[in-house]
Amino acid sequence: MQFIERPRGGENAVLVHVDTLAAETQEDFEEFYELVCSAGARPVAVVKGARRAPDPRYFVGTGKVEEIRAEVERHQAEVVLFNHSLSPAQERNLEAQVKCRVLDRTGLILDIFAQRATTFEGKLQVELAQLRHLSTRLVRGWTHLERQKGGIGLRGPGETQLETDRRLVKHRIFQLNKRLDKLRQQRHERRRARNRTGAATVSLVGYTNAGKSTLFNRMTGAEVFAADRLFATLDPTLRRINLPDSATVILADTVGFIRHLPHSLVAAFRATLEESRVATLLLHVIDAREHERHERIEQVNSVLREIDADRVP
Question: What kind and span of H or E run contains 79?
Fold first, then answer.
């Protein structure tokens, strides 16, 4: 049973995008819009602005908060989505003002991953990433966590609901890590067996929606799900292919990368991303039609450095 209850799809969403002076916090609005649609939300209004630095209380100024609240009321929106990373305090303060759920960019990407995960390992990895992200945001009704463990007899004397919920989350993270470590060991054993055959492994890497799965299907004759949307592929797929010189290689289709990929996802998906780290060769797939392809190449290289795969040819 999945620990995190996902909201239903098709929600009316107000989008918030703020231009900042700092390049490291600047985000692409078109990519954000694609992420929102990929998550199944319906964008009903967009609030844009510019700031030298984020407001510590709301990220945006009080005038923008009023504008967001007005759009929420006008369109009966159920969620406000920020194209930025928000602190737990900023999320709480904003929710109190706009009277609906507020999600930042990381929460949005995690929600998409929760929809895409199909394998047992993929679902565990997504849940682990969600719990790590949400463990600092234990401010709403978390009683559903208690129900799954049986609340009577669980709390210590004088323990608050928040302390109970934090302990339950910590225990669940421990369980997930144990299961994923076991799956990681099994994946390692399968990899050793493949290596004994002498077949090299070629891992397809690249920005999300660059066309990796389409290329994978064309090269291997497989029928891996491929669609023109962000993060269509989440679980890795491996297939043998024979090269013209009679050599055999293992081709691996992997999850795509994105700018400012949340650290919680990188940590949770370490077993999946290992396919790239231990590959014989990385084949970087690039969409030549993308006008920001040079920036996206650098983003992919940045993630490869983060997972220690930058030394693979």
Answer: strand 79-82
